[in-house]
Specification:
The protein is α+β, with helices and mostly antiparallel strands and 108 residues long. The chain has a domain at 9-83: Immunoglobulins (Immunoglobulin-like). It has one helix at residues 85-106, and strands at residues 9-11, 15-17, 20-23, 25-27, 33-37, 43-45, 50-53, 58-67, 73-82. The strands form three sheets. It has a four-stranded antiparallel sheet with strand order 6-5-8-9, with no helix packed on it. A three-stranded antiparallel sheet has the order 2-3-7, with no helix packed on it. A hairpin with a 5-residue loop joins strand 5 and strand 6. It is elongated and about 70 Å long. The N and C termini lie far apart (60 Å).
């Protein structure tokens, strides 16, 4: 858990399923919205739970920012790793495509 501040946003350890990441948590003191910076150049606005799909393997810093009606904000971040399994998955899809092409050509 993340250390609480006056306007606190806290999230649990992200759940990573290959390339799909989901995060649950809580924002205190009634924020009007939560903005997510997924660390890959994309941002979204959503409540908990939040999820995102990464297109490339790597390390990403996810930042959640609670936005309050008085203009104040509270943020917290965590870093995740999308592993080499993603590269393996893409490789398998590529091999299956080649095998499928060979099978189609051999039927002609």
């Amino acid at each position: 858990m993340i250390k609480m501040t006056e306007d606190a946003i806290i999230f649990e350890t992200p759940k990573i399923d290959l390339i799909d990441v989901s995060i649950n948590g809580v924002a205190y003191n009634n924020p009007v919205s939560i903005t997510w910076d997924w660390g890959d150049g994309s941002t979204t606005t959503s409540w908990f739970p939040a999820s995102h799909i990464y297109l490339l393997p790597g390390k990403y810093t996810i930042t959640a920012t609670a936005n309050y009606s008085d203009g104040s904000t509270a943020s917290t971040s965590t870093t995740i790793s999308i592993s080499i399994l993603f590269d393996l998955m893409i490789g398998i899809v590529g091999v299956l495509g080649i095998v499928g092409t060979i099978l189609l050509l051999s039927k002609k």
